[in-house]
Automatic annotation (TrEMBL), chain A:
The species this protein was found in: Hohaiivirga grylli
Molecular function GO terms recorded: ATP binding
ABC transporter domain location: 9-266
Protein name: ATP-binding cassette domain-containing protein
PANTHER family reported for this sequence: CONSERVED COMPONENT OF ABC TRANSPORTER FOR NATURAL AMINO ACIDS-RELATED, HIGH-AFFINITY BRANCHED-CHAIN AMINO ACID TRANSPORT ATP-BINDING PROTEIN LIVG
Entry similarity comment: Belongs to the ABC transporter superfamily.
Keywords annotated in UniProt: Amino-acid transport, ATP-binding, Nucleotide-binding, Transport
Pfam family of the protein (one): ABC_tran
Length: 280, 479
């Protein structure tokens, strides 16, 4: 139960309204440090909206999102501007529809991810324009780090190819590698296994476990592929209609009647019973 | 990559059908081509006889007479025959070589792009070499320094546009922000020098960087309100800002002297030494015989140096984190934000740096011209600079330079094409057709090279091999 004792991210009373529509309603959840946490739920349950709130693409209507980073200091995500959530609070994300810089090479993609560090070492371009040794070393280090992640994701031989020319599964992995180059303490993955074949999704499982175990990074993922979710998650949160309906270990979730009802529907007999219970 | 639907490119399912296709291609002989071409020529002949062949003309007694132009008809028919024949033959040849090579069309394209990637730097060096020796070339070609004045004038104009094109290339080509009001920064630079020099007697060499700084500042001021706009909206608002700048200069008479402009702006000096025939002049100081052309040659090398500085800084910046962030911004702004890039600051730097070069070019313009008025900074200028960037290939330094030279030199060449009068009569004035030809060239470019002259993108960093990236993958930015 690391998510209760040592949470990396705490979401409290998060509500997100779009005009009249309430996409998320008073949601509270914890993401444990070093855990792989999965957010699941039927389509339209508000999973991606939660992600967008956490990563600063939406400003929550109500609620508090606090992230405790590796050094122990707390960042209130709802108050940070979007880019600072990645740079200062160290939350990285990938997208449901892959968003790579398709006209830039794989290596360039990973260097753009290290923009802020490189900007500082290039003296906000002034030292870089002069070509000082400090900047050249920093760039070399950035390339080394990029190559390290290419090796981990098995993309080394593609380093000089344009990202848009990669196969779909490789693009998915590259997006994760790019997010990891920002050195996040929390990595948010929006459907990382979508469109992958069984072999690729088992590779993805290994990659996510490695990220979690060796890089001191917690993973939060939205996923529909239950083979991924059940095999690697330490903690599963189930959303439906913008509210949390279940929260626990994979075993607990598997046997939760509410989850089964949300996914498979309820048969008429049971519905009647529930309705009489609720006195409708 | 769009593969044209061509029967010869479809992968044959069996070896037999493949052989069949090859055989069929081999049987396309010259006789068949000649027949086809002859048929086309006959159609042209039938059309030409009544249209071109006969003409009613007045003879010296003012009586209508039927004249014939058989020479023209024959020329047209032969030309059609040859054109058709060569076209068909080359098309057949191309298809056959495609069929005979086992590789598909894709590697061929890649080879082509890597070849052009190798040739590009070479082209750049050749162009720089020509640019450095141009005054000598011009003097030799026209037979004397004084005679080369018009050539040099044109070259200075062309280089000014090269510099403006390179400046705008940062904003449009790299950062993908469509700016239709770039001329505003050119105007800021021009008026900076004009006003400071005429009112306070500030030297050109102090005004040059100052013009750049003020234009960059203006770029940031204009950039702020339009940060959230994309695409069409960005284009409209930048266009409006360009016009506002011009209208302010036109109407704020106490500041800019309105439509009358500012005249007698001090001329460029050789780092403080004026180009005069006086004892302290350039010629006397260096022990040369006085020649009015010294000033023009100096202006030429000055704008060449400024343009090359723009080029150098742009190339350098592209390889720095800021340059990569500009290009990433063009590719995908949302992804940039998710990687912690401050998109606001990145856009503003692109605007500011682009504007800075525009401002420096503006200061040069007013020093060369000796006179500025708001009329020099109308929308047409912005449109031409944008056309240079788009035609050259967004993001490509060499392409932009070539497009700038073509777009500035072509109208002048057109003016000199008096031989066209032999064809179209004495009342024909080629320069009146400038915009028509300009438009035709644009349409032709958009059909054959929709992404500009040089559309490949060179990566800024590589591990093993640098390979140009095809235009189909590179995005144009959404505003």
């Amino acid at each position: 139960m690391r998510w209760l004792s040592d949470p990396v991210l705490t979401v409290e009373h998060l509500t997100m309204r779009f005009d009249g529509l309430t996409a998320i309603n008073d949601l509270s959840l914890n993401v444990g440090r070093g855990d792989i946490t999965a957010v699941i739920g039927p389509n339209g349950a508000g999973k991606t909206t939660v992600f967008n709130c956490i990563t600063g693409f939406y400003r929550p209507t109500e609620g508090m999102l606090s992230l405790k980073d590796k050094t122990g200091s707390t960042h209130l995500l709802e108050r940070l501007p979007g880019h600072d959530i990645t740079w200062k609070a160290k939350v990285a994300r990938t997208f449901q529809n892959i968003r790579l810089f398709s006209g830039m090479t794989v290596l360039e993609n990973l260097l753009v991810a290290q923009h802020n560090n490189l900007m500082i070492s290039s003296g906000f371009s002034i030292l870089g324009l002069l070509g000082t040794r400090g900047y050249r070393n920093a760039e070399k280090q950035a390339i080394d780090k990029a190559m390290l992640w290419l090796e981990r994701t098995g993309l080394t031989s593609w380093a000089d190819e344009p990202a848009g020319a990669l196969a779909y599964g490789d693009q998915r992995r590259l997006e994760i590698a790019r997010a990891m180059c920002t050195e996040p303490s929390l990595l948010c993955l929006d459907e990382p296994a979508a469109g992958l074949n069984p072999k690729e999704s088992s590779q993805l499982n290994e990659l996510l476990l490695a990220i979690c175990n060796h890089h001191n990074t917690s993973v939060l993922l939205i996923e529909h592929d239950m083979s991924v979710v059940m095999q690697i998650s330490d903690h599963i949160i189930v959303l439906d209609y913008g509210s949390k309906i279940a929260d626990g270990t994979p075993e607990e979730i598997k046997n939760d009647p509410k989850v089964i009802a949300a996914y498979l529907g309820v048969d008429d007999e049971e519905l009647e019973k529930l309705e009489t219970e609720a006195q409708i | 990559m769009g593969t044209p639907m061509n029967i010869h490119q479809l992968p044959p399912t069996t070896a037999a059908s493949r052989k069949q296709i090859t055989d069929r291609l081999k049987t396309i002989d010259l006789e068949g081509l000649a027949k086809d071409s002859a048929l086309t020529a006959i159609i042209v002949l039938l059309l030409c006889v009544p249209i071109i062949g006969f003409k009613l003309e007045k003879n010296q007694f003012n009586i209508l007479e039927l004249a014939s132009h058989w020479g023209w008809v024959v020329t047209f028919v032969i030309a059609t025959f040859l054109f058709r024949f060569v076209r068909l033959a080359s098309a057949t040849y191309r298809n056959r070589t495609k069929e005979s090579s086992p590789t598909s069309a894709k590697p061929q394209i890649e080879e082509e792009s890597s070849l052009s990637a190798k040739l590009l730097p070479l082209t750049g060096y050749i162009l720089v070499g020509i640019a450095f020796t141009f005054p000598i070339i011009a003097a030799v070609a026209t037979g004397g320094l004084a005679a080369s004045r018009s050539w040099l004038d044109l070259a200075i104009l062309a280089l000014t546009y090269v510099m403006l094109g390179w400046g705008l290339n940062i904003v449009v080509g790299l950062a993908g922000l469509l700016d239709l009001g770039y001329v505003a920064f050119y105007a800021v630079g021009a008026y900076t020098y004009a006003l400071l020099a005429t009112n306070f007697g500030v030297s050109f060499w102090i005004c040059l960087p100052l013009a750049g700084i003020l234009a960059a500042f203006w770029g940031i001021i204009l950039g702020f309100p339009i940060l959230r706009l994309r695409g069409d909206y960005l284009a409209i608002v930048t266009l409006a800002f360009g016009e506002i700048t011009r209208l302010v200069l036109l109407n704020w008479e106490s500041f800019s002297n309105g439509a009358n402009g500012i005249s007698s702006i001090p001329k460029v000096t050789f780092f403080g030494i004026p180009f005069t025939s006086a004892d302290n002049g350039f010629a006397a100081t260096f022990g040369l015989p006085y020649d009015a052309m010294h000033r023009w040659i100096f202006l030429y090398y000055l704008i060449l140096a400024l343009a090359l500085l723009t080029n150098f800084i742009t190339i350098r910046m592209r390889r720095l984190p800021i340059g990569r962030a500009w290009e990433a911004l063009r590719e995908d702004e949302t992804a940039c934000r998710s990687l912690g890039i401050n998109t606001r600051n990145t856009k503003l730097t692109a605007f500011a740096i682009g504007a800075m070069f525009g401002g420096i070019a503006g200061a040069f313009f007013s020093a060369r011209q000796g006179f500025v008025s708001p009329e020099s900074f109308n929308f047409m200028e912005s449109a031409i600079i944008l056309a240079i960037v788009v035609l050259g290939g967004m993001g490509s330094q060499v392409g932009v330079a070539i497009a700038a030279v073509v777009l500035t030199v072509a109208p002048e060449l057109l003016r000199n094409m008096t031989f066209l009068k032999n064809f179209f009569g004495d009342s024909f004035d080629p320069s009146e057709y400038r915009l028509l030809l300009f438009g035709l060239a644009m349409v032709a470019m958009m059909v054959w090279r929709p992404r500009g002259l040089i559309s490949v993108r060179n990566p800024t960093v590589s591990i093993n091999k640098t390979k140009a990236i095809g235009a189909n993958l590179v995005k144009e930015g959404h505003g």
